Amino acid sequence: MLKIYLIRHGQTPGNKLKRYIGTTDEQLSQEGREFLEKLSYPMPESLYVSPLLRCVETAGILFPKKESRIIEELSECNFGEFENKNYKELSGNDNYQKWIDSNGMLPFPGGESREDFKHRSLTGFQKVVTGCIREDVHTAALVVHGGTIMNIMEEYADRQRPFYEWHVKNGGGYQVELDPATWKQGKHEFRVCEAYMEG
Asked: Labelling 28: which of 38, 64, 110, 171 has CA 20 to 30 A away?
């Protein structure tokens, strides 16, 4: 079996202010770093990380001295004109109201659509799983973004839940397990074993 930890990066200044932080390459906040230093995840055989600084820094704190592989497709959604703003700053923005009214299903103006973002996230995850199977890896960790995790869980989890219900707090995530043999045969599903800091 292949055990995978899907871990959301630590808190950034923008996260604290509830901003849409996608392509903005923020560092972790001091509070975020201190919180991560108290966490303990098992050391994986292979570590995969989004290219954005907040994920690279988180991986360095959770798995010190562990070499990581950057997977470009695992980076966060491009929020377009909502990028680095929060709901208060966007109140009165017609495009934002339309997006809210669509239950978050409309594409981000000037950014990515849900479909494009999901396709990209799943492509990155497939790369990871294929690499792990090829190298006979039994435990892997992905230090990525909330949206990336939600896409992966919505698609492959053995329990059906909509995208937004897979949300996890900074530093939280899921431990999942898949059977490489059935995955190679095209049955792309994993078992959810544990959840850390859902909410």
From this structure: 110
